[in-house]
Design a protein that fits this description.
The chain is 32% helix and 33% strand. The chain has 8 helices and 18 strands. The strands form 4 sheets. The protein has a 6-stranded antiparallel beta sheet with strand order 1-2-5-6-9-7. Helix 2 packs parallel to helix 5, helix 4 runs antiparallel to helix 5 and helix 7 packs antiparallel against helix 8.
Length: 292
């Protein structure tokens, strides 16, 4: 009887992590702590903090918040045993005050770097991860963001999208995939084919390990694109070659996490050109990556 009981207990313990991932985080307490609501995608609850207070430009082109200025937090796990990970867009003088606040709540800082080149003002990106109860993590994250000028008030309801401008279809046709248009930015989140894990936990694509590609209008006939390709080591240089062959600049290559498997590299890029030429370059780069 004792042996059977121990065997049953072992089965329950081994099954528990699977149950944790399946239950998901209750959204209401997180919303209350953060002062806004997010979007649920599978087991991921993602909350965004666009830097609508910043007026950033690259070579005179005003950058929409959804193109490259979106801080975010992705919650996975359960209410009592959650993980939050994400990326914060900060001015240079905000970086260390925010880091200090996050570290005081035992958040791990996994990267601090640029994503863009030649932007004015210069912005930095802080990647982080926290472990604990979902409500505690949300409260600590809001306190960290309060050390910056990130708008924390509840955002106004988004205006309904009008009929997509012609450049959207031109980009979609060139990329060969449908994107999501919101606030003037066409976005893609293309999942990798292989699973990404960290400490035996699978990181869903929506938690920051999908190929993230954004477009916005850049004048009457052009579009701008930026984002980050999520790459294994052997994919890095083939993607660089495709991007440069299509006149898309590589602006950064670095890590976002500390102990992920397989080891990943995040490549940021920038281009302005016709929807057809820029979209073709992105499509060529995606062909060098193992995606779904």
């Amino acid at each position: 009887m004792i042996i059977r009981l121990r065997f049953f207990t072992l089965i329950c313990v081994l099954s528990f992590p699977m149950l944790v991932r399946a239950q998901g985080v209750t959204m209401a307490p997180v919303d209350q702590a953060l002062g806004r609501s997010g979007q649920k995608t599978g087991d991921v609850y993602k909350v965004s903090f666009p830097r609508t207070d910043l007026h950033v430009s690259v070579h005179g082109l005003a950058i929409k918040p959804g193109l490259a200025l979106g801080s975010w937090a992705a919650f996975i796990g359960t209410d009592d045993n959650a993980v939050v990970m994400g990326d914060l867009v900060l001015l240079e003088d905000e970086v260390n005050p925010v880091i200090a606040k996050l570290r005081s709540s035992d958040f791990e800082i996994s990267a601090v770097h640029n994503h863009l080149i030649d932007e004015t003002p210069h912005v930095m990106y802080v990647h982080y991860m926290g472990h604990g109860s979902a409500s505690h993590l949300a409260t600590a994250l809001r306190e960290g963001l309060a050390a910056s000028k990130t708008p924390l008030e509840k955002p106004a309801a988004a205006a309904e999208e009008v009929a997509p401008p012609s450049w959207v279809k031109a980009v979609e046709d060139s990329v060969g995939r449908k994107g999501t248009l919101k606030a003037g930015v066409l976005s893609y989140g293309v999942p990798r084919a292989d699973a990404v894990t960290m400490a035996s936990m699978t990181i869903p694509p929506a938690a920051g390990v999908a190929e993230a590609i954004n477009f916005q209008a850049a004048g009457a006939a052009n579009v701008a694109t930026t984002g980050d390709f999520v790459l294994t080591a052997e994919e890095v240089n083939p993607v660089i070659s495709e991007l440069q062959a299509h006149k898309i600049s590589v602006t950064a290559l670095h890590s976002h996490m500390l102990t992920e498997q397989p080891r990943l590299f995040f490549m940021h890029f920038w281009a302005v050109g016709s929807p057809e030429s820029v979209g073709a370059g992105i499509a060529a780069a995606l062909k060098k990556i193992s995606t779904k």
